[in-house]
Design a protein that fits this description.
- This protein is an alpha/beta fold.
- The protein has helices spanning 11-23, 30-43, 54-64, 82-89, 108-113, 134-144, 194-204, 225-235, 238-254, 283-292, 309-312, 324-332, 344-359; strands spanning 47-51, 72-75, 93-96, 119-123, 147-151, 159-160, 163-164, 170-174, 187-191, 208-210, 213-214, 268-269, 275-278, 333-336.
- It has a seven-stranded mixed sheet with strand order 1-9-8-5-4-2-3, with helices on both faces.
- The model is unreliable at 364-369 (pLDDT under 50).
């Protein structure tokens, strides 16, 4: 089976974790601090706060901005449900604005139309590894006095205008096993605001600055030393791993003529967490064909967040104009393996199976407009 994702762990990661195990310091400690400092340098910000998952990063970042009951946060409906769930967990309400067809990310114009007197933050998602339009979204946040929180869980190392995502607002990263950099489970908040970082550190550890002195309602969302050790080793490899993803993406694109393959928007640097094509008809038949040939193609995401049973039960939460682009793309997207562990033989097998499936009519007409993700 050619997997959709495969973490690449080597001797460096093994030795780093063994050193932690031998130290006897397993809970949050010096390795976590070193990882925070290294990650902050990598993103180009003053502060980084390690937490237990990408969802925890989103939750803590929202809470650290003071977002809670009665507030609204504008975000994308085309993402993993954790993005919106983190908003709900604060007591606030996610408001879904439609996405742009060119990059599959939050459309700044639709986000602007969705702002109300209750809006407190914009929460764009850098989907599949391509940066959202951070110039327009940053300007929108400044104009309306809104917090800007970036869901960069799929995009460590991605660039917009030469600047890394996670440096425009409060960046939220995931180090889940399938991500471009992994600690098994883990996450990070990045910011240039020392007060926000201090608040995030308070919230991740039971509201404590000093042990056994609780100043606020906090949570147990700390990162372990083992995870941090993995992260430090992985961070040294991240740029090289991203370049391999990009090379694999180029290789596939060259071998899939007539297919709506992903495109990198000028001025951005796509890190291809996923390589996502568009199929306008027969997507599910093509997916079955690929899986029959031991290729783990997958749909990210077949059901937009606002269509999830949880969110349908909450009542209307869509911004101006509905969400036609997100709904259409959810019926058309198909992700193919692109991870750095793939061999040329694997990539050739993926491309060959795709061409075979299309020639055999497994899918209807392939969408010819460029795929944004």
């Amino acid at each position: 089976m050619i997997r959709i994702a495969q973490p690449l762990l080597g001797e460096e990661e093994e030795q780093a974790v063994l050193a932690v195990l031998r130290s006897g310091q397993l809970s949050q400690g010096p390795a976590v601090r070193r990882f925070e400092e290294a990650f902050a340098r990598y993103i180009g910000v003053q502060e980084a706060v390690a937490v237990s998952s990408g969802t925890a990063a989103l939750h803590v970042a929202l809470l650290a901005h003071g977002i809670g009951p009665g507030d609204e946060v504008i975000t994308s409906p085309f993402t993993f449900v954790a993005t919106a769930n983190a908003v709900l967990a604060t007591g606030a309400r996610p408001v879904f604005a439609d996405i742009s067809e060119k990059d599959f990310n939050l459309d700044p114009a639709r986000a602007g139309e969705s702002i109300s007197e209750r809006t407190r933050a914009l929460l764009p998602v850098h989907l599949y590894g391509q940066a959202a339009d951070m110039e327009a979204l940053s300007a929108l946040a400044r104009r309306h006095g809104l917090a800007l929180i970036e869901d960069a869980c799929q995009a460590p190392g991605a660039l917009f205008g030469g600047r890394k995502v996670g440096s425009f607002g409060a960046g939220c990263f995931s180090f889940y096993a399938t991500k471009n950099i992994t600690t098994g489970e883990g996450g990070m908040i990045t910011t240039d605001d020392p007060k926000l970082a201090a608040r995030a550190r308070l919230l991740r550890d039971h509201g404590q600055r000093r042990r056994y002195v609780s100043e606020a309602l906090g949570y147990n969302l700390r990162m372990t030393e083992m995870a941090a050790a993995l992260g430090l080793a992985q961070l040294q490899k991240l740029d090289a791993l991203n370049e391999r993803r990009r090379a694999n993406a180029r290789y596939l694109t060259e071998r899939l003529p007539g297919v709506a393959t992903p495109r990198e928007i000028p001025g951005r640097y796509h890190v291809y967490h996923q390589y996502t094509i568009r199929v306008s008809k027969g997507r599910d038949a093509l997916l079955r064909h690929l899986r029959d040939r031991d290729i783990e193609a997958t749909v990210f995401y077949p059901l937009p967040v606002h269509k999830q049973p949880l969110y349908r039960g909450l009542g209307p939460s869509t911004g101006s104009g509905g969400l036609p682009v997100a709904e259409r793309l959810s019926r058309e997207v198909l992700s193919l393996p692109v991870h750095p562990g793939l061999s040329r033989e694997d990539l050739d097998a993926v491309a060959s199976a795709m061409r075979e499936g299309l020639a055999a009519g497994r899918a209807g007409r392939v969408a010819m407009e460029g795929a944004g993700g």
